[in-house]
Amino acid sequence: MAKKDPYAALRYREFNVFLLMRFAMVFAWSMQFVVIEWEVYSITKNPLSLGIIGLMEVIPAVTLALFAGHIVDQKEKRSLLFKCLLGFSVVSIGLFLLTWPRLTQFIDTNYTLYFIYFLVFLGGIVRAFLGPTIFSLFALIIPKKIYPNAATWSSSVWQMGAVVGPAAGGFTINLIGVHWSMCVIFGFSLFALICLFQIERKPILNTKIGEPILQSLKEGIHFVKNNKAVLGALSLDMIAVLFGGAVALLPIYAQDILEVGPEGFGILRAAPAVGALITMFTSAYFPLYKNAGMKLLAAIFGFGICIVIFGLSTMFWLSVAALFMSGVTDGISMIIRQTILQLKTPDAMRGRVASVNSMFVGSSNELGAFESGLTAKLMGTVTAVVFGGSMTLITVVFTGIISPKFRKLDLRKDLEEHEALE
């Protein structure tokens, strides 16, 4: 079934509910980030302020990641996810109030900016727990033999939210303004909470409940360090995302370089996710677990080329095409990485491994945003984007040369072993 049925995972009711919940959460989170980017740059007109947004989220996300993984492996997943979604809703309400003209007219602009950064920081705390919890809950909903298919659909829904969220952010800013856009975001966070209660509580598979935290964290780090497939995939993707974070500078391209306004900004922001979404739906029919290592290297190399083209482009539709293709290649990378993690990670360690993943890859989005904002401030926006894409290309070539074992990585044997266990 895992090999021949492209809809295998969708035949499980709870997994469908899980997908709805994940879509609502990703939609709300990605739309909120876009609205915040637009508001902050409109206030400051400083590219470094866009980098600070990413930095404010990544500091707690990285600092608390390993601790969060330990907690996730020790606790029931649905209850923990409820707390995460509730925390995000609180952040959304705060941003809704901070963008209310009747309130902000009494607050100094600088204080408004500081409050926004503070709420983004709180969102980073929530995110430290959110990623590992979703990753762990995913594994408890469907059988191991269809992990690759389920990973494809889960990643597809993630990208669908990432498509619609940024686009909706750009269009709603233009239609109803920043303040009411935040109200839409809050509504989707409530929908995610409603979906979550349609999923039953799951057993805790960790047999070491009450294990000392330092020993638990050491075990998780040791596993990632000694599993070359997991470590290689995480390291490679981290560098690519870190230096290829051109998306953080899209408000500058939309407002100052391409001059396309909020609607053009929404199109630019959605283009990578559209490309990734198409790739992911296609991969449901053409699995990527064969020759996974070479495919991952090729995908990230293609991603770097697209970022360079985008950085040099002064034509709107060429920029959209470059971002679209960057999403196609990033989609391949995401599916392969998620399949590696799901197949290679023991059930009792999913929270900790997912936390390390969030430190490597998830948080590198925000570090990439800070790197992009800082280099744009120092060397100019276009040069910063081209520099980031070039560093991605160099990283892929270097990894391919020094790691022949990773080039030969193939996941077919792992999948066959899981099917045999089922």
From TrEMBL:
GO CC annotations on file: plasma membrane
Where does this one sit in the cell? Cell membrane
The main location is membrane
Q: Where are its TM segments located?
A: 15-36, 48-68, 80-100, 112-141, 153-173, 179-199, 229-254, 266-289, 296-324, 378-402
Q: Which domain of life is it from?
A: Bacteria
Query: Which keywords label this protein?
Result: Cell membrane, Membrane, Transmembrane, Transmembrane helix, Transport
Task: Describe its membrane topology.
Answer: Multi-pass membrane protein
Query: What is this protein's record name?
Result: Putative MFS family arabinose efflux permease
Q: Name the species this protein comes from.
A: Leeuwenhoekiella marinoflava
